[in-house]
Structure formats: C-alpha cells, structure tokens
Amino acid sequence: MFLGCIIHSLLTVISFTAIQLRANETTTDLDEKYTADTTAKLTTKATELTTEATELNTEANELTTEDMELTTEATEPVTDPPEKVNEETTQTKPPSRAQMDDLTSFDDKVYCKFQANSYSCSNARLKRKYYYDIQLNQCIRFDYGHCKHSYNMFDGRRECFDACEDEYSHQVINVTANVYCRFQPDFGDCHMYNPMWYFDIIDMRCKGFSYSGCGGNDNRFRNVEKCLSVCSHAVKHTEEE
C-alpha cells in the first residue's frame, strides 16, 4: 500500500514536469513569433519612413531648383518688347506715273485685258495670231498688224489659254489712260444694262456697249465726248521695231 502511494506520487510529479516543459516551449514559441512579427513590422515602418524621407528630399531639391530659376529670371536684364512695325511705312510705295504709263512694266493680269490690235502699222503682211476675249473666256484668232505694244497676242490657242485663263479676272488699279484705254469693253459682274462708251484702238474712235453696274475696268465712259478727250490722245500706234 505504501509502495503504491509512492509510485502514484512519482507519476504525478512526472506529469506536472511534462506539463511545465510544454508550457515553457509554448511560451518560447510565442515569444519568438511575437519577436519576428514585431521585427517585420518595424522593418516595414522603417522602409516607409525612409521612402517618405527620400520623397521629401526630392521635393526639397525641386523647390531649390525653382528658387534658383526664379532668382535667375529676376536678375536677368529687362528688355523692352520689340517695337510694333508701322504697317503704313512698310507698305509698298505706289508706282510712279512713269511706271504706270510704261506699257512694258506689266504682266498678264493687265495684258490679257488688252484689245486685239489689228491696226495696220506697216505695209507688211498681216500675221495670224490669237488673243484672249474676256467676255467669251476664249482665245480668238485675229490678224496682227505689226503694231508695238500688242501684248494680248499669242502664236497658238494653247499658249493663249496658259497665259490668260487664270489672269484676266484680276482687278487692275493704278494705271493711266495709256493703259486702260487699250482694255476690252467689260460688261462687269452685276445684272443691269447701262449704256456706256469705250475706246476702240483699231478704229481709233469710241463705241457703245452695255455695262452691268459693277466690276469692269476703266475703259468705260458715260458719254462719247469724255471717252474721246481721254483716250484719243493717250493711245498712239507705232510700228514694232
């Protein structure tokens, strides 16, 4: 009986010791896990703080750069804005009267409006040429009489079209009677029918035509007297050289 009690006591002590060891192991495991978790959290937090510090440092550098740029701009000398160019002084000067009166100084915008010149200026045989008719918008054949300044004159129909098809409609300004009295009569762009007079360079007299009321050119007069007084002395035929 006594021996049984001793054995029971020993078993109890052994069981308690085993429980105590397990408890110690569990505590150790928990301590290690807590330590590992805590270390990981602290490491993550430290990394975040380092990143924030880097970003703040970058922003500080950017602000420093901006301050330097502003300082540089402030120290740069102030220059006056460029002066506005006076458009009136840069515009092309109007041609002189000598230039406006010089028949050789123009281009097809003017020449394609000229009348076909069949006036005979020599005893030479007439030549067959083409001129641009501004009313028909076509190149028409005519007989050339060897007069100087016969500019609306071409050897072939194709050459005539190439020169005048896109040029005849341009408005012509700043020309003298020596030029516009040679223009073909131009009906204009509106729809009225006003009796007017133009100077015919072949017959050297004024003839009637209808004017629409707008557009046209300056070879247009309200009466025959004005037409003759302006153009009969302005247009002179001379033989070509």
Automatic annotation (TrEMBL):
GO terms for molecular function: serine-type endopeptidase inhibitor activity. The keyword Signal applies. GO terms for cellular component: extracellular space. Keywords: Disulfide bond, Protease inhibitor, Secreted, Serine protease inhibitor, Signal, Toxin. Residues 1-23 form the signal peptide. The keyword Signal applies. This is BPTI/Kunitz inhibitor domain-containing protein. It comes from Spodoptera littoralis.
